[in-house]
Amino acid sequence: MDYGAGSYRTEGNTNGWGMGAMYELTYDIYLNEDRSSILQPLFNASVVTTRMDGYRETGAGSMGLNVDKQELTTGTVALGGRWMGLVGSNLFGREALAELRVNAAQDLGDRRGEANVGLLGNPGLLQRVRGAKVGRTAVQIGAGLSVPVGTRGTVFVDGNADIRDGASSLNGSIGYRYDF
Q: Do 88 and 35 form a contact (C-beta atoms < 8 A)?
């Protein structure tokens, strides 16, 4: 941008990436003779690492803002249960499945992102800035429905609530899955 007093330019972006892995251990307890209703006690463990690129502005009239890259790694362990039940079938004999889940979760590791932030390109004005602290303990509640379509497709709807001390969230998804 050129506004008469010189040019102004920014470099960098807030691009980043994340990678995670999860392992879940369950056991089926059939609640009726035809096995159409199942209770699963469950344990899961996950780890997620995220990285975000730094940001720098330069040029006339700028404050010389410089934000270093941010890195965050968090692990989670959860105990809970899941109920799954068959709620119908289609003409091809494929069954619709309803699901309810409740977990108690505990996060381990990083609770907030941190980055060095500086102004005017002056190392003396460099400060360590922390993001909002994320709660460690959570109750996670979810519900889902998978409905078969034809011989290989499935439409699914899923909703989740993560109720955490200090930071709660709601999310949902709807989609189509094709089984090869």
A: no
Cβ-based neighbours of 91, under 8 Å, separated by 6 or more = none
Token representation of residue 9: 């330019």
Residues in the chain: 180
Closest to 98 measured CA to CA, from 145, 157, 30, 32: 145
Q: Which helix (H) or strand (E) holds 80?
A: strand 70-89
pLDDT tens per residue, range 55-85: 777 665 566 777 778 888 888 999 999 999 9
- How buried is 171 (Cβ within 10 angstroms: 0-12 exposed, 13-18 middle, 19+ buried)? exposed
- Convert the pLDDT of each residue in 114-134 to its tens digit: 777 777 766 777 777 776 666
